[in-house]
Amino acid sequence: MSRPTRPSRFWETLAVVIVKPLSWLLVKKDWRHGDRLPRTGGLIIAANHLSWADPVLLAHFLYNNGRWPVILAKSALFKVPLLGRAVRGLLAIPVARGSSEAARSLAESARRLADGGAILFYPEGTCTRDPELWPMVGKTGVARLALESGAPVIPVAHWGAHELLPYGEKKPRLFPRKTFRVIVGPPVDLSKYDGQPLRAGVLREATADIMAALTAQLAELRGEKAPETPFDPAGR
């Protein structure tokens, strides 16, 4: 059975009416290479994660470039009155972290991809803990989803949301007005994994390729050299 790739007109209109003016008000924009986003078909958008604010700001960028982002959200949000109804209406996919239930979110993501949806995926699984805010070692879910589905993976790096709302803080820093920078990279080449069994080693290597592509885009956006080895919170 086909699933909708966009919310109902009510929920889409409500989100656009709230998010777009708020986004334009809060941050200046430096958006690059939005034309690299395919306008149709199943798509995995691999993004770095800096702040609780970046999903909203990224959603605005993606919407303006022709894609409705399907966001993976904490399952706890679906239980909050009103908010839970909103995230369901906006077609978010619940994720139970650290649980076997997380496999269900990947399965649902695969179904949405097959129906032509654009999945906004944070391969790190959480906001980066790297001291300089570079992408960390990624989790293998995004690689598994890409290799099983065959959907293209587009790295989308961003910078500036953490200045508006630093990770762990609840009060935004509104002044001076911040700039939200976004750059879209070309699809990650995963062709060397075609036909290979999805063993742990293959998934780790494919994940590393995705994270390297994402990090390269962020280095270009920041105008800085990225570390040679990504931060690994498990092996710090």
Automatic annotation (TrEMBL):
Coiled coil: none annotated. GO terms for molecular function: 1-acylglycerol-3-phosphate O-acyltransferase activity. Signal peptide: none annotated. One of its GO terms (biological process) is phosphatidic acid biosynthetic process. The keyword Transferase applies. GO terms for cellular component: plasma membrane. The keyword Transferase applies. It comes from the Bacteria. Pfam families: Acyltransferase. Keywords: Acyltransferase, Transferase. Residues 43-161 form the Phospholipid/glycerol acyltransferase domain. This is 1-acyl-sn-glycerol-3-phosphate acyltransferases. It comes from Nonomuraea pusilla.
